[in-house]
Amino acid sequence: MAATKASKEQKYDRQLRLWGDHGQETLENAHVCLINATATGTEILKNLVLPGIGAFTIVDGHTVTGEDVGNNFFLSNNSIGKIRAQAATELLQELNSDVSGNFVEESPDKLLDNDPEFFHRFTIVIGVQLPESTCLRLGSVLWSAAVPFLVCKTYGLIGYMRLVVQEHTVIESHPDNALEDLRLDQPFAEFKNHIQSYDLDSMDKKDHSHTPWIIVVAKYLEKWLSEHNGQPPKNYNEKEAFRQCIREGILKNENGVPEDEENFEEAIKNVNTALNPTKVPSAVEDLFNSVQCNDITSQTLSFWVMLRAVKEFVLNEGNGSLPVRGTIPDMIADSQKFINLQNVYRQKAMQDAATVSKHVECLLQSFGKPPESISEKDIKLFCKNASFLRVVRCRSLAEEYSVDSVNKDEITSCMDNPDSEMVFYLMLRAVDRFYQQHSRYPGVYNYQVEDDINKLKLCVNNLLQEYSLNVNIKDDYIHEFCRYGAAEPHTVAAFLGGSAAQEAIKIISHQFVPFSNTFIYNAMSQTSATLQL
Amino acid sequence: MADADEPMVVDGGDGHNCEWEGRWNHVKKFLERSGPFTHPDFEPSTEALSGFHNIHVVDMDTIDVSNLNRQFLFRGKDVGRPKADVAADFINSRIPGCCVIPHFKKIQDLDETFYRQFHIIVCGLDSVVARRWMNGMLLSLLVYDDGVLDPGSIIPLIDGGTEGFKGNARVILPGMTACIDCTLELYPPQVNFPMCTIASMPRLPEHCIEYARMLLWPKEKPFGDGVVLDGDDPEHIQWVYQRSLERAAEFNITGVTYRLTQGVVKRIIPAVASTNAVIAAACATEVFKIASSAFIPLNNYMVFNDVDGLYTYTFEAERKENCSACSQVPLDMHFSPTSKLQEVLDYLTESASLQMKSPAITATVEGKNKTLYLQSVASIEQRTRPNLSKTLKELGLADRQELAVADVTTPQTMLFRLCFTS
């Protein structure tokens, strides 16, 4: 209905400006599974329900305790004794009527026993406060089904997240500081012609001062190349000399005093970046060399088909360069000169995208798929973002936990600093062992704290031994983890709630780049680290 | 100032249904148990616990539908109601025993008697001006005995802010650690498009929108004389949008959309639930640390960005020796006696460390308090405007004399010492 659409546009306006209508659509088509409606779980879901995901399902076999209500905004004290999944679903559903909330009163272990394919329907599964054994079982099911899995844990003042996804492609990574694609070092034909159409020496003052800096640099570069054997300015001294050439080009009044020509100042300021050689970023080269790009089949995702097409373009029509991006930054210039220059880049970008399209068509044809399988729109978007493509791959939990493939190097090198966030990862692993051994977490009751320190220390040593990790964990951290008593303070849960929700949104929308693969937050020092395990 | 003997947290409400078994389990461990990383002065206790029950919330805004994607205490039915009221109602009914008292006001509408009562102040303001004002208010509450700061007069200020996927949280102990003004350079002034670009050389769709907003609207008064452009009125935005399209067509500029128009007119900053949750949580953690005295608080500035993975950076912002707000020493300003008052005004508004909005300057001349220039009252502005083109000497100002400057960025008048250069 038009009314609902309009009101949704209003409601979601502030976030649509970040991920666009197409990003919002992916959210609205998503079905998120949350396992365990603890404070951490509900805080994560809150930040997914508010932006309007299509649906969520809470899987949780617990009943609500007084303790649960104490730290969970989405449980009330009259739900004590009731089904936790249901109580939380009600209060989360109430946040946004666009979202469809569901629950399953069942422990994840039971579901894994009886109906593991239950989890195949989800866009992403978020598992909260799960013991290691459950994580490994669930991880294995989801890995085979290619369903992304986000593991989250709040333990005392420590927050932990682990992303488990085999391969996640990102076309729109929205980099913060992207370099422009101006092609000044290798001007394409239409750009060259456009530059030719300018004669700085014969221009009147008004035109001279309102010529885009890109043209100014291009003109002076032409001159430099002709005087330097076709070699552009390379080192600092040469670039300084080049800047000086441009500066000397500033018009002077009758007294020989240089006029105020902001466009020339812009040109001088931009010399450094303007002279950056155009080349395929190494990250993109790596993608070109990957298996998925080179072994295209009818099962291949469109990302790789388009990438292969771009690779073909680079090797042929592109002469070693990616399709032209087609955007230029704003700069001092009169409207016409700016728009004309912008159109030169835009048209070239369209042309290049059309050429890439032909390659896409060929590829699709070669394994019997109709050319419409990948739309022009998608190809254009892909080409525009060609320099910023990213692929995130995370190891499976099985690999992380296996003695044969544990990432010893990462662990030991981080632990060169015994206070690095890596120590919290190791403590969380040790605490899991304690749980396996004693069927409870350390230090839950005051009287346990002292004794449990020694018991936990045994678990720590046991862990380090098993993985042959030659690191030292200070007693202070063992004491601290007993002190926590497996508490889940709300503010730490809420920090993770915001962090995890955004990572889930990145996975669902394929926009912005997810972390890989382990994130640790220390609420005591308000610091964090991302580790690759 | 709250009595040091008073309990940090106060029981509110009638005690009904406020306590149940296990309510404080997740939090009491941090108050009952010390450890290797707790504050050296922390003395754990197992006394009866209560949560933060006594909270005042100040907000001058009413709820807009565009708030609902992230402001989780508000619903569609609340649109138009004051945020403070609805937030208080929601929390009071969801959290038994909690007593949130709302104030549907600007922070500047409340005075030192109000702010003095609090143990901690937390801000989630939407402007630097407001932050500076609150900063100045807490600085004005500081008490010095013989030049020594009385720690009992310090009210910690926890400040959080976000923009899209970026955010920051900071802890300010007024008089002790870096204040808002100490780090004013971290908030660079908003850059506006040059007028000549808007008027005669548009290149971007934004230029076309600013043209309609700044030049066409005052000229054509489309909704009547004296009717100011209201970014929240869809009819106003539609008008600006149409005129912007016309302007863009004239110059072959593409990209003007309704959404862009609204964004430019209202200076909209994109916002999502997640970033706000992260920063709010970080701030709340600091409130807990300070209130419980169990931990050393964040020292003192954390930056967060989750555009690419998750990135945090924590550092100690340093106090500025000659900070305009907290250094307590009248700031020297150097001008030649033949400088015009306009130059002084320009310095106050344009200097990166002051960034005043519309300063009012007064001085004592020949024993009498004289207003040199004041912008905010039309009649006084008219009367004092000629002073701007007079020299400091002509205005009767002497070397080393004090100028008092008032401005929205600070609740207290700032003192400057005029130092004549030859």
From TrEMBL, chain A:
GO cellular component: a single term: cytoplasm
Highest taxon in the source lineage: Eukaryota
Keyword entries, A-Z: Ubl conjugation pathway
InterPro entries referenced in this protein's UniProt entry, alphabetically: APP-BP1, ThiF/MoeB/HesA, ThiF_NAD_FAD-bd, Ubiquitin-activating_enz
Alphabetical GO biological process terms: protein neddylation
Pathway assigned in UniProt: Protein modification; protein neddylation
GO MF terms, alphabetically ordered: NEDD8 activating enzyme activity
Domain THIF-type NAD/FAD binding fold per the UniProt entry, residue ranges: 12-527
Similarity section: Belongs to the ubiquitin-activating E1 family. ULA1 subfamily.
Function: Regulatory subunit of the dimeric UBA3-NAE1 E1 enzyme. E1 activates NEDD8 by first adenylating its C-terminal glycine residue with ATP, thereafter linking this residue to the side chain of the catalytic cysteine, yielding a NEDD8-UBA3 thioester and free AMP. E1 finally transfers NEDD8 to the catalytic cysteine of UBE2M.
Protein name according to UniProt: NEDD8-activating enzyme E1 regulatory subunit
Originating species: Sparus aurata (Gilthead sea bream)
UniProtKB/TrEMBL annotation, chain B:
Xref: SMART domains: E2_bind
Molecular function via GO: ATP binding; NEDD8 activating enzyme activity
Domain E2 binding residue range list: 333-421
Organism in which the protein naturally occurs: Sparus aurata (Gilthead sea bream)
Taxon lineage: Eukaryota, Metazoa, Chordata, Craniata, Vertebrata
The family this protein is said to belong to: Belongs to the ubiquitin-activating E1 family. UBA3 subfamily.
Pathway linked to the protein: Protein modification; protein neddylation
Swiss-Prot/TrEMBL catalytic activity: ATP + [NEDD8 protein] + [E1 NEDD8-activating enzyme]-L-cysteine = AMP + diphosphate + [E1 NEDD8-activating enzyme]-S-[NEDD8 protein]-yl-L-cysteine
PROSITE patterns: UBIQUITIN_ACTIVAT_2
Protein name: NEDD8-activating enzyme E1 catalytic subunit
GO biological process: one example: protein neddylation
